[in-house]
Amino acid sequence: MARMDRDQAGIGPHAAAAVDLVPLRKLEGVRVVEGDADVRGWDVCTINGAKVGTVDDLLVDRARGEVVMLDVGLVGSSRHTLAPIRSAQIDRARRIVLIDSADLNGPADVASLS
After folding, report:
1. Which domains does the chain possess?
2. pTM (whole model) above 0.85
């Protein structure tokens, strides 16, 4: 597998390379697997604790059949950003998603996925 096909940790395909992303809410009959955390509505914070936003939806790569990105509504704005699920740390006890701010992809046109 070429370097370009791996994420920064070198562990697999980079989620941003997925071309057919669909919001989970748009997929009929598809839901979060029992036992996994459904993080929609949870706060997204940087590793140092600064709140970035809230998870609005989970984006599914149709070809892989798995969630690869988080659609994050940014605090104090109507803008969104995308964050790779592989770089997220899920804190079930506090119901927050922790992510390194460097992993946020900047403003995203998530309206095109609606």
Report:
1. 20-113 (3.90.50.10)
2. no
